[in-house]
Amino acid sequence: MLQVTVIGHAAHADEVVGRLQDAQAVEIERIEIERGGVTRPPAEEERRYALDEQIARAQFVRDFLARYHTADVAFGAFISEKIHIGEAEFAQLSTDEEFTALYSECETIAARLAEIERERTHLRVLVHELAPWSDLRLQIAQWTGTDHVT
Asked: What pTM does this model have?
């Protein structure tokens, strides 16, 4: 006897089982499988989520500010700078109000820079579209309306 395993969404299981049995191609035996694995307590899950959020914010600030950092050493662009801190300093690292303010400011500046870049792109496209009209010399004071255009 051949065995076939069908994995699918529970909402469609009854329809699939019915069609396979109607075709008399298979005899179906349904088995419920328990989901095993380690379950985390909600508090640990929330803590992990908060730490992931802090890491993402710190990486954003680091990457954003790194774009504007100039290296103090010669050939600094080719050598990555390393920060040396002691074990005690590392243990005391945390996100405080100062970091939260820094993150907020970086986020605001990044959004403003993105807005300026979008406006710049829009203006470049507009200049390109209007370039064929650059040789047209008409005084606006001489323009007059018609029956359908003002």
From this structure: 0.51
